[in-house]
Amino acid sequence: MLQNPQEKSQAYPRRRRSGCYAGHQNPEAIAAAAMYTFLPDNFSPAKPKPSKELKPLLGSAVLGLLLVLAAVVAWCYYSVSLRKAERLRAELLDLNAGGFSIRNQKAEQVFRLAFRSGALDLDSCSRDGALLGCSLTADGRPLHFFIQTVRPKDTVMCYRVRWEEAAPGRAVEHAMFLGDAAAHWYGGAEMRTQHWPIRLEGQQEPQPFVTSDVYSSDAAFGGILERYWLSSRAAAIKVNDSVPFHLGWNSTERSLRLQARYHDTPYKPPTGSAAAPELSYRVCVGSDVTSIHKYMVRRYFNKPSRVPAPEAFRDPIWSTWALYGRAVDYASHHFNSSHLGNRRHVTTPAMATFDFDEVKFPNVMTCSAACATLAPFTLWVHPLSTTTSSRFARAVEARAGSFVREPTGRLPALVRWWNGIGAVLDFTHPKARTSTSMPPIKWLLT
């Protein structure tokens, strides 16, 4: 304990204060000064905590910042998506990785197609004016694909579509949907059971779109084949003639399976070209079914350029088979000079030697005055020779090229028809067209 005032003064030095004299300070001020005097040197005051009123404001600010950031990201994504969508849109046509759809001027969907041989890599797609092209599939396989917009007239919009595989050995398949039951489609091939409009039954794997025997199979194609289909909703599609075309269907999903391939098929690739198939076609939409059909007919199908001879209208066209069957006697029935069609048994009963039946047509090769009274005259002859015919045996021995031959070229290709098994005449060969050993055939061709 300090004993004198001097020691006390040295232990507690007097602090200078501005303002009031120290002796006049109140007790609270003196206590505060004393406390301040004895604080340690490393003391740092605690940071003031935000009041409860500020916490909601800070949370709102953070949330607002996150929302702004999300809006910026969404806008950037939307802009990229919008530019991509614009790049893939082709004036009423919307392309996606798995196919495309087409709308009419009323924004109604009138055509839809799906890619069944692979999806597109949309990032590989680019646009050059009216041409939209893609170079890769979704799994990275190279290909050549494009859709070109063509507007031939104000009321018609067309799209040229082409999918070509870069490597040989693959098949290209697209599924064309017929839509709901209210949409009717017409065209295609003659079938054993002909439905008009098209009515699909069951499922059929794509088969070569070539003439076949409709009596051999319910799915076989007949003699009338057109790679053309027309919809009651004013949409039409025409598959190009260069395509190794195969057609199948699926009644469950109401779709036609359009396929191009070079394996397991009678189609062969062009000479010097790889067997890489291409499926190409044109799809057109119009204001109504009549106008679009007229446009497609003018664009793709030829029609007569001249008016037939007046005799074709003035004189009737007779078919002896319908009324008289095999017993034909032109003189006794007083036929005039109109067009005559003799359908059956012009040749010998075997229908295999291509010789006139001399019982029905005696001295026909001399063709005296009777020929003049029968003009114009048509003979209906089977272009086949049965294997039991002597002419068939001679043709095989001579290898003269009169018959269509099997792939090796050594033997005639045999087919089954209602008169047995025979070979088909090859009218592309000069010997088959000019041989005097086949009188009725020569008459037909001359």
Can you describe what's shown?
GO terms for molecular function: hydrolase activity, acting on glycosyl bonds. Keywords: Glycosidase, Hydrolase, Membrane, Transmembrane, Transmembrane helix. The protein has 446 residues and is α+β, with helices and mostly antiparallel strands. It has 2 domains: 93-300, Immunoglobulin-like (Sandwich); 310-445, no CATH class. 23% of the residues lie in helices and 27% in strands. The protein contains 10 helices and 21 strands. It has helices spanning 5-11, 27-37, 54-88, 289-300, 310-314, 320-324, 369-374, 390-398, 430-434, 439-445, and strands at residues 93-96, 99-103, 109-115, 126-128, 131-136, 142-153, 156-165, 172-177, 185-189, 203-208, 225-231, 235-239, 245-250, 255-260, 278-286, 317-319, 339-342, 377-379, 384-386, 414-417, 420-424. The strands form 4 sheets. An 8-stranded antiparallel sheet has the order 4-5-6-7-15-12-11-9, covered by helices on one side. The chain has a 7-stranded antiparallel sheet with strand order 1-2-3-8-14-13-10, with no helix packed on it. Strand 17, helix 7 and strand 18 form a beta-alpha-beta unit. The longest helix has 35 residues, at 54-88. It is elongated, with a radius of gyration of 45 Å. The protein starts with a helix and ends with a helix. The model is unreliable at 5-23 and 436-446 (pLDDT under 50).
